[in-house]
Amino acid sequence: MSVDVVILAAGQGSRMKSALPKVLHRVGGKPMVQHVIDRASQLDNAKLHVVIGHGADQLREALAGQPLTFALQQQQLGTGHAVAQAMPAVGEGVVLVLYGDVPLTEQQTMQQLVNIAAQGKLGLLTVELADPTGYGRIIRNERQQVVAIIEQKDASEAQRAVREVNTGILALPAKALAEWLPQLSAENAQGEYYLTDIIAMAAGQGMPIEAIQPGCEQEVQGVNNRLQLATLERWYQQQQAEQLMLGGVTLADPARIDLRGEIEHGQDICIDINVVLEGRVKIGNNVLIESNCVIRDSEIADGAHIKANSHLEQAQVGAGCEVGPYARLRPGTELADKAKIGNFVETKKARIGPGSKVNHLSYVGDSLIGQGVNIGAGTITCNYDGVNKFRTEIGDGAFIGSNSSLVAPVQIGAGATVAAGSTVTKAVADDELAVARGKQRNISSWQKPRKA
Ligand code: UD1
Ligand code: CA
């Protein structure tokens, strides 16, 4: 059976005070609506429809290239009206309504609602809140059956006392929804077409209504302002930290790690405080990551040690490597096993062979470096002439003296030595010594200048 998922995302979210549509604000580095899309698209036979209105163009752009359709809601006339905009594209099966600003609903909860709807019933996600203010209240009859939802603004004193509220998330057979949506009226306190009014229609026509509850409140937590966004972010990060720890990662402080993406990891990893992991990160066994590291879209193999304040982006770090402190590995850095990158070293598009060392204050870009190479302090690969980039190649066992400039394109042979302070512009053959620096002159009886 087909499942049409209608994700409401047309509202302005004015309380965010933002030029960015609310649903594009991020939780765990990912737009809220993308969380909803990712989870919903894992449902069997799901077709996704996103109802857009405010910031429609920004949403189309942000979600481009994904298997979903957009339904434009020109004017925001209410949640019922919003769902109606998606109906022309909806099939014969069941419809699941989700919210772009409720990012963390579990796929399993969605599946439960779909299963209820597949049996010809209306599945409703409700939650008991200590403070139900602002929410639609769940009205049950004397047999405890759900018979209606009454919005806060339309509710009587007695109805407002009800603490079971509507999360907004529901599922039902498409056919019934298509029949009921046109019957909604806007004669209520807010002058809106409330989706919630279909509950009373379902009850009136004898469609069974089954209310289920989420595993936790955060699953149905909507975001209306940046305070709620931050609260949900912290909760999400806490969940991820717990998963890491249960999976064999020691965290110095689970409240001081942020994971904004996907992590694949081994065991016996230690992560110190204030580490940010972004995008796709893969970490092997026995890896030590010291404090204040930012690691984005990178792979770190077994036994590597990333020292404090290092930044890695699209980098591959081999087994047993040492990196940092204060190292910056930029995209295209590949460190073979046991390579060492020390403090204040920047690398970019650089393959650095096994056991090679770049220990201090260097820039190594567009470079291919063999094994057992020693790059002295302050070495710069001059890879850019202002227009084009060129490559530097350094053979196995070469020794580059401190404060050398290697003007690319240039090759340094295996076992070659470059004297400290050289500016190398020509190839150096295997085992040769290149000295390319001003000759030292010592002037005896030098008269120091005196004040005039
Ligand atoms: C809605 C429910 C309420 C529930 C609450 C949970 C209705 C009438 N009320 O109230 O029972 O307790 O959610 O948070 O459904 N939207 C559109 N187009 C519209 C109107 C809304 O896309 O024309 C989207 C909004 O962007 C938002 C969501 O639907 O993501 C909910 O709309 P909102 O106006 O916040 O509904 P509530 O008044 O909170
Ligand atoms: Ca709301």
At the fourth level of CATH, the homologous superfamily of the largest domain is: Spore Coat Polysaccharide Biosynthesis Protein SpsA, Chain A
CATH topology of the largest domain: Spore Coat Polysaccharide Biosynthesis Protein SpsA, Chain A
Kindly name the structural category.
alpha/beta
Distance between the termini: 97 Å
Structure description:
- This protein has 2 domains: 3-220, Spore Coat Polysaccharide Biosynthesis Protein SpsA, Chain A; 242-434, UDP N-Acetylglucosamine Acyltransferase, domain 1 (3 Solenoid), CATH 2.160.10.
- It is elongated and about 105 Å long.
- The strands form 6 sheets. An 11-stranded parallel sheet has the order 12-14-16-19-22-25-27-29-32-35-37.
- Helix content is 17%, strand content 33%.
- The protein has 8 helices and 37 strands.
- The protein has 452 residues and is α/β, with parallel strands linked by helices.
- Uridine-diphosphate-N-acetylglucosamine binds at residues 8-11, 51, 73, 76-79, 81-82, 99-101, 135-136, 149, 151, 165-168, 194-196, 222.
